[in-house]
Amino acid sequence: MLYFLRGFNRQKDFLLSEIEPQTAFTIVVPFRNEAKNLPTLLRSFSNLKYPKALFEIILVNDMSEDDSIGVINEFLNSKSGKNLKNIIQINDRIISTKSPKKDAITTAIHLAKYDWILTTDADCAVPPYWLDTFDQYIQTNDCVSVSGPVKFTGLSSFLTRFQILDALSLQAVTLSSFGLQKPMLCNGANFAYKLSAFKEVNGFEGNTNSASGDDMFLLEKFKTSFPKQSHFLKSDKAIVTTLVENSIGDLMDQRKRWVSKMGASKNGLSKLSGVIVTLMNVLLIALIPLVLFNIIPASSAGMIVLIKCSVDLLLVFKSARFFEQEGALLSFVFASLLYPFFNLYVVIASLFGTFRWKDRTFSS
């Protein structure tokens, strides 16, 4: 955590300036059964300040079973939708791999008019100066991919704050790894890359057996083929917001999906970090019987917990301040006590179980 803290401090904020927009974007949004979330995303698209001639939006229907298409058509016929003419819908496509989301993105990319692809998810909302910030960063830096920040929000509850704290730690590690020039994580809800680079690394080829990983595996390919050209955009004007899960079951499925792709990762730092975190959580759980059976004194166990939580808090606090979510820190102590059990369960379940995602069941 101290190593990542060093990387976080190296990552500087990117500030907008007066630069003429130049970059043309193809925004890709795969969706499945997102009728309740699509209106928020579409409204945020209509509020983008970027010149409409410099971006297009491709919405890929991943065999939705609800009224997602009806919701899109209703928006397109509304006043806001009529002001946003550059939306393309793909309703029919062929699923050819075990990863429907990667298929959906690839389908859209084949139709893309522009050389910069920018992906987000249907349960997200983008900020007004989202494209302006990416454009200025691309203009002023040598890059083939740019990862952006993602903020989790939801109704006030402990479950929400628990998820926000977990997300803040993941975002902190993501940002820190770029600061250390060893990128290992990114989020497909806010991920830009050059179409030419995507084709050069053969897209998602080699990772289609994993249901998830449309972001992380692609980042690994970019890092291998284009060293030092994968960047992180640390700007509050580029933060994409998404909702936390509504139930513990959905949260478990989401985390099992996230952990399942780590096994296929070729990133040594990512795997080492995962092993260290898991072993630390095993140790914290083991402290309970060790103290109860007088194998180690309670003072020693308390010192281990205190040191661990203090170092974690340093990094999570920096992340919370960037995302303006300091309020979630009120649950930090209780969440830290529960997290070892949560983490260990997710790791074990991801190795031997299944998970549901978008009303489909996948093997871990």
UniProtKB/TrEMBL annotation:
Gene Ontology terms, MF aspect: glycosyltransferase activity
Transmembrane segments: 272-292, 298-317, 329-355
Annotated SUPFAM superfamilies: Nucleotide-diphospho-sugar transferases
Top-level taxon of origin: Bacteria
Database matches in Pfam families: Glycos_transf_2
The enzyme's E.C. designation: 2.4.-.-
Protein name: Glycosyltransferase
